[in-house]
Amino acid sequence: MHLPDTKIAQRTVQFDRSRLTIDDIVAIADGSARAVLSAEPGFRAAIARGADFLDRLLREDGTIYGVTTGYGDSCTVTVPAELIAELPHHLYTYHGCGLGEYLSPAQTRAVMATRLASLSKGFSGVSVELLEQIARLLDAGLLPMIPSEGSVGASGDLTPLSYLAAVLCGEREVWRDGRQLPAAQALREAGIAPLRLRPKEGLAIMNGTAVMTALACLAYDRAAYLVQLCTRITAMASFALDGNAHHFDETLFSVKPHAGMQEVARCLRQDLPSGPGERNGKRLQDRYSIRCAPHVIGVLADALPFFRQSIENELNSANDNPIIDAENERVLHGGHFYGGHIAFAMDGMKNAVANLADLLDRQMALLVDSRYNQGLPANLSGMTGSRAAINHGLKALQISSSAWTAEALKLTMPASVFSRSTECHNQDKVSMGTIAARDCLRVLELTEQVVAALLITVRQGVWLRCRLNPGAVLEPSLARMMETLAADIAPIEEDRRLEPDLRRLLELLRAKAWSLYE
Question: Is 414 helix (H, G, I), strand (E, B) or coil?
Fold first, then answer.
């Protein structure tokens, strides 16, 4: 199966005060959509009102947190009028202490789009020029190099977002076409003037949940695809094990009304023979990893609507502090930078996703074990004759799958319960939402590796079942999946190195290359 090298932008996502979706952020992240700031006069006037209101307060000697005061616990420190203009520069400068791997280009585009979405709500007191600068950088492919570690998730993603603020002003480093270079040089070569932040703009950029929310959008997209792919793998595993299709009977599932679980069972019925009362005569009941697969996969399927609602509500929120109510001329001090909803969604998602890895790993254990796989060769080796003695099939792949599963399960400890008191006890209860999101992405990565291993396994198992039973008939959906997999993965007869096959499958998986269920 051929994959294009890059996605070509097909559509635009307009940023104004209307509601955006996870799909919008994912499309910007993967390059299939462009971010465009609305040119509608009413929208731009609404943004300008907030900045103009703050300017008037400053002229009238109003006290505004983070504008005429220090930050956090330093809110009792009054900033002299002649130094107010320098304060935003100091905020992003002293927060330049992130570590860990840099966010990927796709993740960085998602972060920039997510921050632009929040600031476009018109409650942050920023200028139209700031919004335009973020859109310019996205359009020019100038992506801040953002270290992934250093946020406790309240007051938002301060340290990672400081790298966005700095690059807007021509400082620090950017990715451009896969190369690292100084932001000042990149902006100059792109014909973009560095921004001079207005008094609240440093705080508005940094004091929010953009990093955790962006990562959550990407995590959701991957998790939703895994629901379908794990269902298809389960169907292939059931066929390879000569399993009992009646475990997924419609009437059976009608008596337990979890909609996601019922949908998984419906998809399995679509993939498997469904004669009345059909079973293989060997076991009345298949083992749990097959029989209860809808109950495992269905947990994630049923949780996805809640996760979407939580993530999209955060995406469409003004989540910095203070909130600027220009219409009523009020400055509202609160805590919308707190990422608790994202933390909870990510902690829950990584738990449900890791359970998919565990389910598939158990299915693989059945498939490779000649005591339980209903007559298939040990380790699903396809070799016959005298050379069968030296071939070991999927023996090592099952070990690797178990290792990836164990690591995924280890990461399911909720991050949100590890709140720490920081910043002189001003930030004394924090969300850890960004750590939860990073953990979730790692669990997804490991689970996708297990999925790749199972794709090899079920492709091999179905092939062997059909060789053992030439009269076996695949339902059209499984036959098409076998044809698709066969284009990339040859049957395993003589032992071979499987890493290239795994990497190819991961590439296809992450591109959502397989059409699964309608």
Answer: coil
**CA distances (Å), origin 448, targets 110, 115, 402, 512:** 21, 28, 13, 12
pLDDT of residue 84: 82
What is the DSSP code string of 381-401?
Answer: ----GGGGGG--TTHHHHHHH
Alpha carbons 155 and 426: distance in angstroms, whole number: 10
DSSP state of 180: E
Residue whose entry in the numeric block shows the structure tokens 């099952």:
398
Q: Are strands 147-149 and 173-176 parallel, antiparallel or unpaired?
A: unpaired
Judge whether 23 lies within some domain: yes
pLDDT of residue 256: 98
Bridge pairing between strands 323-325 and 330-332: antiparallel
Per-residue pLDDT tens over the stretch 23-62: 999 999 999 999 999 999 999 999 999 999 988 888 887 7
Write the Ramachandran bin of 347: left for phi over 0, alpha for psi from -120 to 50, otherwise beta.
alpha
Write down which residue in 175, 208, 241 finishes a domain.
Answer: 208
- Please say if the pLDDT value at position 73 is more than 80: no
- The Cα 18–Cα 11 span in angstroms is 17
In the block, tokens 């083992």 appear at 287
pLDDT band with cut points at 50, 70 and 90 for residue 2: low
Q: Are strands 143-144 and 33-37 parallel, antiparallel or unpaired?
A: unpaired
CB-CB neighbours of 88 under 10 Å: 24
Domain boundary among 208, 229, 262: 208
On whether the CB atoms of residues 323 and 193 are closer than 8 A, the answer is: no
Token readout for 281 is 């005569």
pLDDT on residue 195: 97
Residue 456, pLDDT above cutoff 60: yes
Instruction: Name the token pair of 175.
Output: 């990715």
DSSP 103: P
Domain annotation covers residue 3 = no
SS3 content of the chain, % helix, strand, coil (to 5): 55, 5, 35
Do 291 and 149 share a domain, yes or no? no
**Boundaries of domain holding 339:** 216-510
Closest CA to 70 of 330, 424, 323: 424
Mean pLDDT of 71-76: 72
For residue 16, is pLDDT > 70?
yes
Give me the CATH number covering residue 33: 1.10.275.10
Q: What is the mean pLDDT of the chain?
A: 94
Residue type, 432: M
Q: Are residues 179 and 227 in the same domain?
A: no
What is the distance between the alpha carbons of residues 318 and 325, in angstroms, rounded to a whole number?
A: 11
pLDDT one-digit tens code per residue, 150-207: 999 998 899 999 999 999 999 999 999 999 999 999 999 999 999 999 989 999 999 9
Q: Is 65 noted as a catalytic residue in this protein?
A: yes
State which H helix or E strand residue 14 sits in.
Answer: strand 11-15
Angle 184-189-193 (CA atoms, 0-180°, nearest 5)? Answer: 60
Using a 10 angstrom Cβ sphere, with 0-12 exposed, 13-18 middle and 19 or more buried, the burial of residue 231 is buried
